[in-house]
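EI: anyone free to look at a 305-residue chain?
SC: sure, send it
EI:
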Amino acid sequence: MKSLYKRFYTAITLAVILLACSDDGVSEFPTSVELSYSVVGKQAAFTALSHSADSYAWDFGDGQKSTDKDPVHVYASGGYYTVTVSVTGKTGTDQKTAQLAVDVTPYILLTGGPTAEGGKTWKIDSSHPSGDKFALADDSFTSVQALSTGVFSGVGYGEAYDDTFTFYFDGKYTANANGGPSSDGKAFGGYVNALVTGKTGVKAVDGVSDVYDLCTANYAADANAAFTFAENENFAVPSIAGVTYSGVKTLSFTGNGYVGFLDAQTKVILQSITDKSMRLVIFIAADPGEYPKASHALVMTFKAV
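SC: here you go
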């Protein structure tokens, strides 16, 4: 029996050796490649770890290509790029891809970068992580009331969690109220602002609104809506006397744009941002002039859709 097994494994081994040898007796491995890279700033260095490869074709994901084995590429803009290397040899072909995050700035995190043709869409995070709150609009945004999970649903404004806000790398912007395809829903916003601007469709306020001026009102964004991101700004809200927020990141809007909560003051503070989450400070009861000079702050987390 041992002799039978020995003959069988010997035959298998010889067959493998014969299949792996070329006509001239030299062993050839199947053509294969693995992709390795390093990124510093906007410069990326790539390495093709290959077997039996005679040619290399790189696609860097920004329209640029190379046939070098181990190319170095400088991206014109930061962003997210899909890189592909394809190899060809006597024993076949192989291909590998990698996802690169190149020089990812807050603006890239916000918009998805130059390769995100559909922009990057955000909505209010209904789980309201720790730190989401109604606050005083003072220097440190002193908490008045923490936001609990789904709090706006509990007080009759659950549709706020359906609103979507899309930022494009070129500065364009869309705000779709209640997830509507043409931004013709009702915006979650300030009751005082809705009354002053004469918007119709204002939802009846409840006890919470008596304090925080919440409402929903008819809303439609302009076709040319846009946003501006400031990396470092000293920002004063007109309806808050004596307070300037120094060195903050801000988002401001034109074309009837807003994010999260529509009020007279549409410029907001960007407190923090990652690829999946951002936290904004939005000012409420920030009137255009006729209301007492006072305001609250709504600190909310948004999640990437």
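EI: Confidence is low (pLDDT under 50) at residues 1-22, 206-211.
SC: 👍
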